[in-house]
Amino acid sequence: CARGIGNALAKHLDSKGFHVFASCRDPNSLGAEDLRKSCSSRMQVFQLDAASDESVQKAVQFVKDNLGTCELWAIINNAGIQKGFLLELTSIQDFKDTLEVNALGPARVTKAFLPLLRRSRGRVINMESIIG
């Protein structure tokens, strides 16, 4: 939610009247602050690191605690990183970190939120870019 299409989509959905849970790796980032300041009270910004099982479980609990009588209609997997551009200059650890977030992150988040999505017959939307 810090920048880019995730930030813009969160703002757009808020403007359409949706209750938006915007997850950010760093909930204190400028983009996260911008969402808090420029959106309605329906916007809830919280921390989620798609590479961390513990963080994802905390995010699920946060959403459960804040849904009230509403249901979760969808999750949008938009997290992505890009570490390095040239093969010979990119470490194996950087490749592992990129795969952890970009490939395993959406699976980890989706699996954790499935019970809420099944209850509402909700949807999973996966977004990717060339950069991450």
From TrEMBL:
Residue stretches in coiled coil: none
Signal sequence annotation: none
Any matching Pfam family: adh_short
Gene Ontology terms: biological process: steroid metabolic process
InterPro entries: NAD(P)-bd_dom_sf (IPR036291), SDR_fam (IPR002347)
Gene Ontology molecular function: any one: oxidoreductase activity
Domain of life: Eukaryota
Name of the protein: D-beta-hydroxybutyrate dehydrogenase, mitochondrial
